[in-house]
Design goal:
The complex is a heterodimer. By secondary structure, chain A is of the alpha+beta class. Helix content of chain A is about 15%, strand content about 25%. In chain A, the strands form 2 sheets. Chain A has a two-stranded antiparallel sheet. Chain A has a two-stranded antiparallel ribbon with strand order 2-3. In chain B, strands 1, 2, 8, 9, 10, 11, 17 and 18 form an 8-stranded mixed beta sheet that branches. Chain B has a 7-stranded mixed beta sheet with strand order 6-5-13-14-15-12-16. In chain B, strand 10 and strand 11 form a beta hairpin. The longest helix of chain B has 30 residues. In chain B, about 50% of the residues are buried. Classes of the chains: A alpha+beta, B alpha/beta. The interface between A and B is medium-sized, with 26 and 35 residues.
Amino acid sequence: MGKPKAIVDRNICLACGGCISVCPQDALSMYGGRALVTDEKCISCAICIRICPIGAISGRSVSNEI
Amino acid sequence: MKYDVVIVGAGPAGTVTARFAAESGAKVLVIERRQEVGVPVLCGEGVSRKIDEWGMLEGKRWIANKMDGARIFSPNGTMVKLSAEIAGNETGYVVYRDIFDQELARQASRAGAKILMNTNAIGLLKDKDKITGVKAKKQEDEIEIEADIVVGADGVESKIGKWGGIDTRLDPMDLETCCQYTLTNIDCRDSYCDFYLGNKIAPGGYIWVFPKGKDIANVGIGVLGNLSEAGMPKKLLDEFISNNPNFKDGNPIRFLAGAVPVANPVESVKDNLILVGDSARQVDPITGGGITHCLEAGKIAGETIGLAIERQQFDKETLSVYETGWKEAFAKKLKRNYMVKEIFLDFDDKTLNMLADSLKDLKFDEISTFSLIKALVLKHPTLLMKLRPLMKISSET
């Protein structure tokens, strides 16, 4: 089991861009008007989770996914 | 597609740059990933009266309300009132940012700039190391836009800066993480912008109330990133509203989130590349205000682009006319206020209350920083230690 990667709830995200600006790995981008995490780049630091003003980002394990 | 300049982002920084570049003869394209300029709004919508000096906006449709001044509330509720003359630099108007942005876009178009909506920048075009344009996605189509100059006016999350080799990544301690309701059915007949301070109210930030009319206001919060945790700004704002008799029955007709860089400015030019606005961190680190800087820097950027095209030189040295220009205009203020921000972060609620208690009876008509600090310290001598760093800064600038 890897550490949980960040995932953005697209129903909550309001596209402020805060998470993108603090990500040390440039793993987040705006896509279709919402923030989106690139799993391959995410290092599970959780900075984006803490920075989100409305709690739209959480951690989830991706160990079972391709 | 080939242009002299491609500008990424149709916010105020992008469209003002576009306007002045086009007016000085450049062939300009602005790309914007959203489907409507200025929407969704990501802003408290308080704008300095300095905006009048630039004369860049026509008519009055973008103005929601004109402010008489500002009131600052310390953690125990002590109020310090600032007249419009003192506070006007930061709190002149409450605006409709969507209309505001669209007016600026209209002027850019009028000057000859082309604006392409629904177009998301996904990378830079490069010839070896030289930046030659922008790669973008318009709906599902990938397009290549060649240009001699690329402008990153792509906001707090600036990708253009990163792709161009400028480190725009923000430390959480240099970011205010924000959210805001627009509340109706409340009483705000007083035309004052209100600010609520306190480490429990908004750690490292503040709650603001900006009235847009007699019964409607933007009520928002900013929390410093390193002091925040998931969803904290919304939680604290909800608490503030539900505990406030005037706001608790208000009806939220809009909810938005925002992220404001409160950092030291970054390098804003490279060969074939310019950053303007939030992407260049041209934001006041105390208030979080950036609109007037966007206008001021955008004009200088546009004129510099005109000059570069006239000379057909797009190297860093030529484009540095822009960097020198905006730094002369307001970088000193940003630098000083960044230091003031750091000093204020050390103030606990007790100190903030003492400060407010000393300030509340002062007449804020003609003040110098020195006489102000003297008055503060006379009432609460223990403030002397806390204020010493501020005195040092004010004597140096």
